[in-house]
Amino acid sequence: MVDGSRQYVSTFIAGFGEMVSDALKQKLANVVVETLLDGLILYRSTSPVGDVQKLRFANNSFLSLRAETHPTIDRVEPIVRRLFERADLAPAATVTAAKQVRTFRVIISKENATVAVDPALLAGVEKKIAHQLKLTVRRALPDVEFWFLLRREGLCFFGVRMTALGKQRTRKYAPGELRQELCHLLCLLSEPSGKDVVLDPFCGSGALVLERLHNFPVRHILAGDEDPTLVATLQRKLARQRNVTVAQWDARALMTVAASSVDKIITDPPWGFFKGETIDFALFYTEMLAEFARVLKPGGLAVILVGRKDEFAQALAALAGRFEPLKEYHVLVSGKKAAVYKLRRLT
């Protein structure tokens, strides 16, 4: 254990465990990973709470007040009671002392589903938290939440949620828009550099473009889509950005993009329809990758989120010799199976 470290828990998109572990060590100080599960990581760091709150690849982050492993989580109440009795509430003040935090509620989650416990047990937990941290119970729309989280693997922890505090609102996403956490992970996977010319040929509403532009260094971004309405909307959003070009195009024929001119491609191709027609995915991916090979510099990287893994594998095989597969992550996006591929353009 590093002196002065705190224990934290962050949840993330299942399938990205290795990458999240590496990213934590880049973003925070003196990180020691204690447990890595699918979609959850328990770790220690000397970084302040504020730095953990800013992790854009985490769905949620918690300051852990007590963590234990149990051989079974069948009986929730004894575990909740034990965790709370052995927890030290004092560190929670680093989160609850914020001006906007006045009310709280307690959440008990077993295998990612909230469960009820004996009202007397819950009332006792609430009373102690309220007294020690000078907060008021509010079970609807509170300023902060205290979580008991029990995982099927046996990891159980009690902690205070550090994200979405006070009057912060949960961001609303447009249909089909990628979540911030996924966009950030895809950008990280591309090994971002301030010298990059980045291409997103299926930009849609621009989630990937905006994440790369505002949270990573970049020289220039080329973005486009076949939908003129989406293109026009993104052009308006980015009208003052001199290092972004937004155009309407077919990603399989990027006529305005010169050969060997792009350092990185980060994109999310269509999952079901293109130009209003059902996609022959094997053919679509093959034509798409052939064009990516044309515009990428030798050694350039492509990070691609796809909904059809088998067809994408067929396309890669059809273009053998043009790309070197570096990483493959099997993930869930909005409850649907997907995969993320990191490819290097061969010479």
Structure explained in plain terms:
- By secondary structure, this protein is α/β, with parallel strands linked by helices.
- It folds into two domains: 6-161, VC0802-like (2-Layer Sandwich); 180-345, Vaccinia Virus protein VP39 (Rossmann fold), CATH 3.40.50.150.
- Helix content is 29%, strand content 32%.
- The protein is built from ten helices and 18 strands.
- The strands form three sheets. Strands 1, 2, 3, 4, 5, 6, 7, 8 and 9 form a nine-stranded mixed sheet that branches.
- A hairpin with a 2-residue loop joins strand 17 and strand 18.
- Helix 6 (180-189) crosses helix 7 and helix 9 (281-295) packs across helix 10 (309-318).
- The longest helix is centred in the middle third of the chain and has 15 residues, at 119-133.
- The mean pLDDT is 94.
Spatial extent as radius of gyration: 23 Å
Q: Low-confidence runs (pLDDT<50, min 5 residues)?
A: none
Main structural class: alpha/beta
Net shape: elongated
Number of domains: 2
**How many strands in all?**
18
What is the overall number of helices? 10
Helix-strand string: EHEEHEHHEEHEEEHEHEHEEEEHEHEE
What would CATH call the homologous superfamily of the largest domain? Vaccinia Virus protein VP39
The separation of the N and C termini measures: 46 Å
Helicity level? 25-40%
Tell me the fraction of residues in β-strands, as a range. 25-35%
